[in-house]
Amino acid sequence: MYTTEALGNFSVFRETSVSMAATNYLRSPVRIRPMSRSILSSKNLLWNYGMKCQCSSSTSSSSSGVDEKSVFSLTSSSKYEVDYLGEKTKGDLNVKVEHLEAFGIDSQATLKGPIEEVARVEAEEAEDLLRDLGIPTPFSSRQSPRGIFCSRTLNLRSISAIGYDMDYTLMHYNVIAWEGRAYDYCMENLKKVGFPVDGLAFDPDLVIRGLVIDKEKGNLVKADRFGYVKRAMHGTKMLSNRAVSEMYGRELVDLRKESRWEFLNTLFSVSEAVAYMQMVDRLDDGTIAAQLGPLDYKGLYKAVGRALFRAHVEGQLKSEIMSKPELFVTPDPELPLALLDQKEAGKKLLLITNSDYHYTDKMMQHSFNRFLPNDMGWRDLFDIVIVSARKPEFFQMSHPMYEVVTGEGLMRPCFKAKTGGLYSGGSAQMVENSLNIHGDEILYVGDHIYTDVSQSKVHLRWRTALICRELEEEFSALIHSRGHRASLVELINQKEVIGDLFNQLRLASQRRTKGRPAQTLAATNLDDQELSESMQKLLIVMQRLDQKIAPMLEADGELFNKRYADIYTSRVSNFLHYTPFMYFRSQEQTLAHDSYSYYCSRFNGSAVDDEVDFML
């Protein structure tokens, strides 16, 4: 058999803004020509689209599409191999030899010529055709704020089931509206028990996801990838670099110590963190009444947490949202269509949410039903729906499962989920057993780094995708800060060169005092005064550079860490811009010495020597 990798990637596209003629062509069998010319010819194909549209417009608007089963064979779960990137080939299509002649290809002389030349021609033609159809290429998608970014290679063709979280995943809330109301209810509850909250207001710019609360010190900290604290804020006041260094030194943020550290995993954490940091200020200035008891920063955090928990448990917040969902939910018409593509591609779709049945049904109806075709409802998309899942315990242990049997939410015990069913509780292992799909055949998509992404991977080896809406703003900020970053990098490089010369002169001075020769002829030829003056000048330049670099580096910041997820993106609807058969390849991870390859790719021959003085 011949795999489709040898013949290029074939995809069936849903009707979008491209012409109906183009869509009809892509749904029809592709006739592959001998390799004396390209398989795909952009101009010819687009001309054929127009002819095909004119011929078919008077008949039927529907198209039968490619009969995959008669033309291709599908790699089964029992006969898959592992490719050179370590991914299973399950779900890959293979061309049946007996059909090659029907495609106009001599099976004994298929794709003549060096594969490098064949691939170059086909890639150029494919790129032209994708551009003419208005479809972004994989490379251009990676340069888009709506791209899907890959941390670990993932073959979507080998995925049999895709599970989704709901809140901030399948539906995106207006953060200012949703978290603002959560904050209001929290502060009302704090006021009822005597906390001074007058004059305080929700400030969404105070906190971002990915920061960590130090409950012992009343600080909000930002740690690097090794766990060292790089920045910190006490209450609502930013601490200086010196204060951070004196307070934390070489202490590591250890998220396993939950009694001290609280990681802001999700956007739901914003309201709680804002309330806590503001109340830290009130504790510090002594305005919290003594009758509330001897409060430290830990006790204050518990008090704020209880107040917010009451807002959720008492149901006022969710009742308000359910009564006016249009005020709190940002609609995304593309999202249901992305899931429909996946379902029609044979994926089992799962909804696994901690929200209760009534809230889930109301919000999904509002967010999905109006965008689905042919009077479909949101339930029609999913093979299994699980509410009140109790994640992360859902991934860690077994809980009883109940089937929701009435619209009012009445339930009965059950032991196995069935296709089309609606359930409460249960466990991930029950889902695997019910579908007979296990481990890395399942992709789970969620917004919570720990509850959704980390635990499903650690306990079940599910593949994972993180939804991070902030990516779109981050990406735009990176684009707008290119000039700033280029200037910053240039200054840092200048300081590195100047600093190296200063260090060489300092070493020469040190050796001179010991009666030993300097390591460079230039340093040897300098007398003591010239050596001292040169060092003083260089030191002043470096100090002035530091004064320039420090605020620029502070403004530049660091990116949010998404290392737990196999892939990550800003919203689920971004899958619509890819196919359900996409092979996501992670970018090459480089070490510091790999910069040599950069120079070799940029400069040839002796030009490398002009740019790089010395390499080991």
Task: Summarize the topology.
Blueprint: E1 2-3, H1 4-7, H2 20-26, H3 42-56, H4 68-71, E2 72-74, E3 93-95, H5 115-132, H6 138-142, E4 148-150, E5 154-155, E6 161-164, E7 172-173, H7 175-192, E8 212-214, E9 219-223, E10 229-234, E11 237-238, H8 241-248, E12 261-263, H9 269-284, H10 297-313, H11 316-323, E13 329-330, H12 334-344, E14 348-352, H13 357-368, E15 384-387, H14 393-396, E16 401-404, E17 411-414, E18 421-425, H15 428-435, E19 442-446, H16 449-460, E20 463-467, H17 470-480, H18 482-513, H19 521-525, H20 528-556, E21 567-569, E22 583-584, H21 595-602, H22 606-611
Pfam family, one: 5_nucleotid
GO molecular function: hydrolase activity; metal ion binding
InterPro entries: HAD-like_sf, HAD-SF_hydro_IG_5-nucl, HAD_sf
Structure description:
With 616 residues, the protein is α/β, with parallel strands linked by helices. Helix content is 42%, strand content 12%. It is built from 22 helices and 22 strands. The strands form five sheets. Strands 4-21-20-19-6-14-15-18-16-17 form a ten-stranded mixed sheet, sandwiched between helices. A five-stranded antiparallel sheet has the order 11-10-9-8-12. Mean pLDDT is 81; it is low at 1-37, 46-62, 558-562 and 596-616. Belongs to the 5'(3')-deoxyribonucleotidase family. This is 5'-nucleotidase domain-containing protein 4. InterPro entries: HAD-like_sf, HAD-SF_hydro_IG_5-nucl, HAD_sf. It comes from Prunus persica (Peach).
Briefly, what is this?
This protein is α/β, with parallel strands linked by helices. The strands form five sheets. Strands 4-21-20-19-6-14-15-18-16-17 form a ten-stranded mixed β-sheet, with helices on both faces. Strands 11-10-9-8-12 form a five-stranded antiparallel β-sheet. A three-stranded antiparallel β-sheet has the order 1-3-2. The longest helix is centred in the last third of the chain and has 32 residues, at 482-513.
